[in-house]
Amino acid sequence: MRILFYTGKGGVGKSTMAAAAAWQLSKKKRVLVVSLDPAHNLGDIFCVRLNGREKRMSDNLLLREVDLQKLSRDYLEREIGVLTRTYSYLQVLNLDRYFSVLKYSPGIEEYALLTSIEETIRKDGANFDTVIFDTPPTGLTLRFLALPQITTAWIDRLAGIRRQILDKRHTIRKIRGPATEEEKQREEKLSYDEKDDAVLQRLMALKANYESLTGILQGPDCGVVLVFNPDMLSLRESARLVEGLRDINLPLRLLIQNKVTGENLAVADQAAAELRRTVGDTPLLRVALSSNLACGLDSTLYDIPEDLVTPLDWRR
């Protein structure tokens, strides 16, 4: 299974390019295209209503929209449930008061999106040859793609702190001597060894999970497709995205310069040349904008090159 993330500045046409690639690939491959962008228009492009659900367009093509608000709510409820069970022995501290404000915490949407991507890869990977994610604008996309590596680093730090706590517990227990029966009743939920500590075991499970996901995202079967327009604002944001992808070691597989016309050709050439200087030999496709607007993926809307699917082979 191959995984593609179509990304770029808001309004550059990444949803249309993702839909076009999905449509063309579905002629030969089983394709799932997932809209992660809160401003969904995947259904509009195919002239169907999705409303946070999925719809099969052909035997080989399935469309799906992710409801970010519901996704964030479900993620938060699930994680609060884990925290509540893990720290049940601290109920006296009224942790519910702290959990109630977690929904306002920065990063909830990013973690929710990452969870959705992970579940899609795990549950749907065997059923499709290609999964295409239509992503939110650049900033949010970079944040959730970087999360596995950031989280792994934080888990290492937290695990170290947790091991210090267990070590100090063990030291205190040795100093004070054998516990009374009453103390044993109070301490039965406390752990002194790593293998018995639910918190540390949870951290290690999360680390293994995020390391696995990082391996998938950085692997040969995953890649980012950057869509940009022939203008300087789009170019500048695209350059920042390229730099961000390099920082987190995610592969940029394809550039698509969209909405090119005869009138903006000089600017298009300048923007393409400037971006190519930062991305080396990454394949670049140029898509012309037609003045005949129509619903769906009719060839009169965008002049989609017939060889659009070729670079997706990535010359392996």
Would you mind describing this structure in some detail?
This protein is an alpha/beta fold and 316 residues long. 48% of the residues lie in helices and 16% in strands. The protein has a nine-stranded mixed beta sheet, with helices on both faces. Helix 3 crosses helix 5 (108-124) and helix 9 (232-247) runs parallel beside helix 10 (265-279). It is elongated. The model is unreliable at 291-316 (pLDDT under 50).
Task: Please give a quick description of this structure.
The protein is an alpha/beta fold and 316 residues long.
Beta-strand segment tally: 9
Which blocks of ≥5 consecutive residues have pLDDT under 50?
A: 291-316
Beta-strand share of residues: 15-25%
The radius of gyration over CA amounts to: 24 Å
- Straight-line distance between termini: 14 Å
Strand line-up of the largest beta sheet: 3-4-2-5-1-6-7-8-9
Helix/strand order, N-terminal first: EHEHEEHHHEHHHEHEHEE
Q: What overall form do the CA principal axes indicate?
A: elongated
